[in-house]
Design a protein that fits this description.
By secondary structure, this protein is of the alpha+beta class. The chain is 25% helix and 21% strand. It has 2 domains: 136 residues, N-terminal domain of MutM-like DNA repair proteins, CATH 3.20.190.10; 120 residues, Helicase, Ruva Protein, domain 3. A hairpin with a 2-residue loop joins strand 3 and strand 4. The two termini are 30 Å apart.
Length: 280
């Protein structure tokens, strides 16, 4: 958490503005950077980062998997929010004219010539940032985007059968397919009526097509609802009010009424309907 829909929502807010802060950061020029916890920066060194990022202008902002991708003048800033990361844009100065202090868990801040700043807040300190010339250095290992139309059901079926792994851990492997985490994997598997412990190389073509369609449906719905807000980390979405199985152990399945069960798959809490998602 955050997963693809949450990261996509954050990217959209930063790119287009929001009700709280209507100004986009596109076109903003960085004047300086404050690195408040050095381990947030994966590359380059802190001194090199501060020297290189100054003077860069944000040309565009996109998402790749769970990464935020800031295309700068001639470099790329990549940020992975991991478990507890969040981003905000704020004025450098408060309404009183006094400099606005950074918050307790702020790890990285970019000051803009416009008087704004972009802040990376990360309570658990797992998030990371990279400033690179070639984003493929970091993003090159990612699998295809699940919402990319070039990922056909035939290609997806072939991908599943090239691996011999349990279905849920494979779907959460970012080198297999980018952007899925615990929440949306559980939701997609339930919608596709597939058990998380099923073997990927045992999935039929019909099941594979159903699974890909389910992944796209839950991700698209998650994006439409601005993601899921299930703790203090990510706020503003309401997809949590429409979960089919995730976090609903002991509640009736929305399809058949059977009580949802929680099991552990790949060391992750997993939620299924034992009736809808039978394992062969």
């Amino acid at each position: 958490m955050p997963e693809l829909p949450e990261v996509e929502t954050i990217a959209r807010v930063l790119r287009d503005g929001s009700c709280d802060y209507q100004t986009s950061i596109i076109g903003c020029q960085v004047t300086s950077a404050a690195l408040l916890w050095e381990h947030t920066l994966a590359a380059p060194s802190p001194g090199e980062f501060q020297k290189l990022v100054a003077g860069q202008t944000i040309r565009s902002l996109s998402r790749r998997g769970k990464f935020l991708v800031f295309s700068l003048t001639d470099l790329t800033l990549l940020i992975h929010l991991r478990m507890s990361g969040d981003m905000r844009v704020e004025s450098t100065y408060a309404d009183t004219g006094e400099a606005r202090s950074l918050e307790k868990h702020d790890r990285l801040a970019l000051e803009f010539s416009s008087g704004q700043r972009l802040v990376f807040n990360d309570t658990r300190k797992f998030g990371r940032a990279w400033l690179v010339k070639d984003p493929a250095q970091v993003l090159g290992r990612l699998g295809p985007e699940p919402l990319d139309g070039t990922l056909t059901s035939e290609i997806f079926f072939s991908m599943l059968h090239r691996r011999s792994r349990l279905l849920k851990p494979l779907l959460m492997d970012q080198s297999f397919i980018a952007g899925l985490g615990n929440i949306y994997t559980d939701e997609a598997l339930h919608l596709a009526k597939l058990h998380p412990l099923a073997g990927s190389d045992q999935i039929t073509q019909e099941q594979s097509a159903r699974l890909l369609a389910a992944i796209r449906e839950v991700l698209s719905e998650g994006i439409r609802r601005n993601g899921a807000s299930i703790d203090w980390v990510y706020r503003g979405g309401d997809f949590q009010n429409h979960f089919r199985v995730y976090g609903r152990s002991g509640c009736p399945c929305p399809v058949c009424g059977t009580l949802i069960e929680r099991l552990v798959v790949g060391q992750r809490g997993t939620h299924i309907c034992p009736n809808c998602q039978k394992i062969a």
